[in-house]
TrEMBL record:
The keyword Glycoprotein does not apply. Residues 44-120 form the RNA 2-O ribose methyltransferase substrate binding domain. This is TrmH family RNA methyltransferase. Transmembrane segments: none annotated. One of its GO terms (molecular function) is methyltransferase activity.
Amino acid sequence: MTSSNAPRRTGAVKQITSHSNPLIKEIKGLLTQRKHRTQAGLFVAEGLKLATDALEAGWDVHYLALGPDMRDNPVAQKAAATAKARGALILEVNTAILSAMTRKDNPQMVVGVYEQRISDLRNLDPHAQTVLVALDRVRDPGNLGTIIRTVDAVGASGVVLVGDCTDPFAVETVRATMGSLFHVPLYKATRQDLKDLIVRWPGTVAATHLKGSVDYRTPDYTEPTLLVMGNEQQGLEQDLADACKTLIRIPQVGQADSLNLAVATGISLYEIRRKHLAL
Ligand code: SAM
């Protein structure tokens, strides 16, 4: 699992009133630059709900910036106390600084900086999975965030990022996950890693494909199931499609060439997990 390169901090509270404070610049850099996030092993998540999700799930928090509205908010104060006890630096800032930090006119009143968590696929135990979703070169942060949220909703067990993917820790992705990022394990993999996993996978392997000959509602999905999804523009790489035992297709009528990747993933996941999902 990746971990942060940033120095550990001992819990403290600091008031910041200047936009040019180096910590504010650092958080802005984490929000806007992938290179900066990767080097530091950190990322930014906005909002009190995400802060409480992250803390409840035991994620390491480095900074928690609180705006003026949060000083009397008991949930925010509890989150700040927990974060501080775990070594985070609590930053008390004004709305203008939060705006500058997040580049938004109406910023969230809580902004957290957390340690990234992503594991190597080669360390995954297939027997411990329900449904694992592998995404071949996913490029759109909104799609990735929506998929992570849906994986969480159906009780699937993780998301594999195969090849050159969009950054799961980009702020747009994090926003789209609505907190599910803190509950869904992420793995990174090369195409070869995924092909190796397919060979040793103990349950159903199904790839979605526009040329698939199997209606996605017909397989008897055996858990653990590995669901493989293609890239938004190019679909699934041919060698990956060849490696998968079953190519499933979601029927379409009308003129659309294909479904949006996140929609196709959601439809497939609900079918695969159907017998586990009841109101
Ligand atoms: N032009 C691409 C192609 O030829 O595959 C379209 C890719 S589509 C926008 C992105 C991914 O969503 C596909 O690779 C596949 O995994 C999934 N997908 C979209 N519509 C689908 C459908 N009707 N049946 C099966 N999978 C679908």
